[in-house]
Amino acid sequence: MIIIFQCYGGTHTSVAAASIYLKRLPRRRVPQLSDLLALPYFDRVDRNEIGTLYYVGCDRSDNPVFVLGSGRWGTQIRALLTRLTSMQQQGRTFLLHNDRDDAVAVIDCFPTITGAVRLGGFLSRRIGLVAIGRPLVGLGILRAYHRFVELVESFEKDPGPYLL
Amino acid sequence: VQSLSGAPGSDQPLPSRHLAGAGLGAGAEVAARKQSPGKEALLIERFGRTSERDTVYLMSAAVPQPLLLRTLNSLAGLMKDRCGKELFLPAGPLPLWSGADGNAGVRPKEAFWKEIKALVEQTRLRVELIKKR
């Protein structure tokens, strides 16, 4: 299975959720801010990179995990992925062209976004006030950390609704 | 190699209606689907096969072209990594002709057509390069 965590910029909520999924962040407690800020790609993807798939690791079943920023076009990008997953070419689909691949799951992280995350992300990525924006977005994520854990566990419990 | 967008072999300028909407897309045979405002606009149509048996698809999406192209290129790269060969090539995006609706700022049709021909030629060369590897 190809697993894609999707959010607005592909650099905050999707990275946090993917890291929880990959067990790089704890589930039973809220991590330190420094743990979050040290994650690869966290608050480091620029606006002009939105739309790029970033590989963040493999889960225990060897499924590749990616993060993807889709800006305001999350629905449309999801529709595109769905279409490419269903399009048949030489007996296989465009995206599932490998025997190891049987599905694509897209986990939308938009529901986890809080005001602090939005404001911090805007300050850091849009205006360039990284010193203020980055800690703010980190604190915003930590304050709503349970939402991220719930999202990840919901996917692990039943991937069905997330499959394209 | 599957080419998304582009229409190699076509000699005629494309009717402007085929370029409606943002994103990739063009064609001489496939009629663009009119999307009602607010509705997700995504069109992917099989256009045909080239003489070298590559399949050409046309695509149009209501997503900014750079974002769409980055996503398609990422997916192409992902598939290449997983399959060991390039299976599809996002070709484009084609230029938008602002004069399609009779708006101001119409570019000369010749300049518009030159851009399309350049893109088609560039795509042809990229496909050749992929096959030579």
Spatial strand sequence of the major β-sheet of chain A: 2-3-1-6
Strand neighbour order, sheet with most strands of chain B:
2-3-1-4
The best one-word shape of chain A is globular
Give start-end ranges of low-pLDDT stretches of chain B.
5-38
State the helical fraction of chain A.
Answer: 40-55%
List its traits:
heterodimer, A: 164 residues, alpha/beta, four-stranded mixed β-sheet, 6 helices, globular, B: 133 residues, 2 helices
What does this structure look like?
The complex is a heterodimer of chains A (164) and B (133). With 164 residues, chain A is α/β, with parallel strands linked by helices. Helices cover 41% and strands 16% of the residues of chain A. Chain A contains six helices and six strands; from the N terminus they run βααββαβββααα. In chain A, a hairpin with a 2-residue loop joins strand 4 and strand 5. In chain A, helix 4 packs antiparallel against helix 5. Chain B is of the alpha/beta class and 133 residues long. Chain B is built from two helices and four strands. The longest helix of chain B is centred in the last third of the chain and has 24 residues. At the A-B interface, helix 3 of A face helix 1 of B.
What is this structure, in a nutshell?
With 164 residues, chain A is of the alpha/beta class.
Secondary structure layout plus pairing:
The complex is a heterodimer of chains A (164) and B (133).
Chain A lengths: L1 E6 L5 H9 L11 H5 L15 E6 L5 E6 L4 H13 L1 E2 L2 E2 L10 E5 L6 H13 L2 H14 L1 H13 L7
Parallel strand pairs in A: 1-3, 1-6
Antiparallel strand pairs in A: 2-3, 4-5
Helix pairs in contact in A: 1-6, 4-5
Chain B lengths: L1 E3 L37 E8 L5 E7 L3 H19 L4 E3 L18 H24 L1
Parallel strand pairs in B: 1-3, 1-4
Antiparallel strand pairs in B: 2-3
